[in-house]
């Protein structure tokens, strides 16, 4: 993502000598392949029909596309999201860069399109000020080209070169595609309604929503995710949101006084992944014995919870909790709450798919450790 303020241009060099390499011991989730599930009640179908003609991609639809994005020299763009055949996402709901959503909006099924995306519509300009050489003696032990590092000012940079003669590393805070035009080629294979019985929604809370969202993005069958806030009406003694029904702000939720919890909304295809499988991943993403907090994140806004959207989900949630309790893995009681889903409010744009935007992979089945950092 391009820097949002001019101040970013000076931050890298100011903090370059204070690099902190991402700790390899951070908690992570290894996600095995999901076993597709069958459903006799739901069959794949297109929104196309004889009366209205080919289906048109509109905001909110679930799309299946073939996608390639190349650089000026014809090589594939390095991406933290899926490309290739049968890439699925919900139009207008993230998961892919904004320029991808813009390109397919209004396309019809089986239409192919190739567009050149200029730098200002892709990943912004390249800023030389965001690249710097640092002495190897000031770098963490084991640093190598290709590593991503976090600076003490909160920015993320890549190690792009090592000069053994000068005994230096070069770090670069620009996006790998900063300043570059991209060629996007796509074919729209299928347009589906997200409201069909094939799709279902899950609301889950497991502490900081950044890590849980990325873990869910990586699951085959998950077509959209959103970080947000929910359950404020249940614990806050009100219906829906804040006064007047408005959404809470991040700072309000962080106060711990609203009753809201940081959560993730997951739209998934029941033909590909089951709610049971989603909950298996969920239980591994948090400590179910810790009440009103997760790790060092303390407060009711970080409590663990499963918020079911149907009676069937309630049954599956209760059964999964019983299995965890019977597993013998925990000495303390399981305190993760199971409650009916309340109104879900999307978080501020800054929080949506935060870890993917900051360089962590959201590709399906990616086994790379999920690092939740601030």
Radius of gyration: 22 Å
Main sheet summary: 6 strands, mixed
- Class per helix and strand makeup: alpha+beta
Mean pLDDT, rounded to whole units?
86
What is the subunit organization of this protein? Answer: single chain
The overall strand count is 17
| Helix content range | 10-25%
Lateral arrangement of strands in the main beta sheet: 16-15-10-12-11-17
Shape: globular
Tell me the β content: 25-35%
Order of helices and strands: HEEEHEEEEEEEHEHHEHEEEHEEH
Low-confidence stretches: 1-40
Beginning-to-end CA distance, first to last residue: 16 Å
Total helical elements: 8
Structure characteristics:
single chain; alpha+beta; disordered N terminus
Task: Please give a structural write-up.
The protein has 374 residues and is of the alpha+beta class. It has helices spanning 8-15, 98-104, 209-217, 232-236, 250-254, 275-284, 311-326, 354-357; strands at 20-21, 62-70, 84-90, 112-117, 131-135, 148-150, 156-163, 168-172, 182-192, 199-206, 222-230, 261-269, 293-294, 297-298, 304-308, 337-340, 345-346. A six-stranded mixed β-sheet has the order 16-15-10-12-11-17, with helices on one face. Strands 1-6-7-8-5 form a five-stranded antiparallel β-sheet, with no helix packed on it. The radius of gyration is 22 Å and the shape is globular. Residues 1-40 have low confidence and may be disordered.
